Structure to design on (154 residues):
C-alpha cells in the first residue's frame, strides 16, 4: 500500500507518455525483420516453381520442397532476417539509459526466435497444403505451388 501510489504516479508521469513512441521506434526493425522472412519464403518458393518449370522432374520437386522444410534452420539463409532485428541493439541502448531496460540481448534473441517460428509455420503450412497436389498433372503443379504460396503469404 505504501509503494503502490508512488509507483503508479512514477509510471504515469515518467513512462506511460513515452510508451507509444517507444513502441513505434522498436517496431521499425521488428517489422523489417518479419518482412524479410516473408520475402525469403516468397523467393525460395519462386525458385522451386522456376526449377520445376525447367525440369518437370517430380523427384527434384520433392527434394526442393524437403529443402524448403529446412529453411527455418538454415542459418545462412535466415541471417538477413536476423540482421534486420539487430538494429534493436542501438535503439534499446537509449532505452536502457532512460528507463533502465536490461536484457537487451534477450529481447533481440526472442524476436529472432519468433521469426524462425514464423518461417517454420509458413513452410509447414505450405507442405501441408501442397502435399495432396504433389502427384497431380505436371502441367498444373507450378500453378498449384503458386496458389499455395499465395495462400500461405496471406
Amino acid at each position: 500500500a505504501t509503494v503502490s501510489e508512488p509507483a503508479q504516479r512514477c509510471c504515469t508521469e515518467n513512462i506511460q507518455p513515452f510508451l507509444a513512441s517507444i513502441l513505434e521506434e522498436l517496431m521499425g526493425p521488428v517489422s523489417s525483420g518479419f518482412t524479410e522472412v516473408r520475402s525469403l519464403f516468397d523467393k525460395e518458393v519462386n525458385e522451386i516453381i522456376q526449377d520445376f518449370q525447367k525440369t518437370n522432374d517430380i523427384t527434384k520437386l520433392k527434394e526442393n520442397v524437403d529443402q524448403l522444410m529446412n529453411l527455418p534452420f538454415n542459418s545462412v539463409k535466415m541471417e538477413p532476417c536476423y540482421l534486420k532485428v539487430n538494429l534493436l541493439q542501438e535503439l534499446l541502448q537509449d532505452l536502457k539509459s532512460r528507463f533502465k531496460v536490461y536484457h537487451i540481448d534477450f529481447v533481440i534473441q526472442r524476436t529472432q526466435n519468433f521469426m524462425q517460428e514464423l518461417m517454420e509455420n509458413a513452410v509447414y503450412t505450405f507442405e501441408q497444403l501442397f502435399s495432396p497436389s504433389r502427384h497431380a498433372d505436371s502441367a498444373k503443379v507450378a500453378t498449384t505451388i503458386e496458389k499455395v504460396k499465395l495462400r500461405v503469404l496471406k
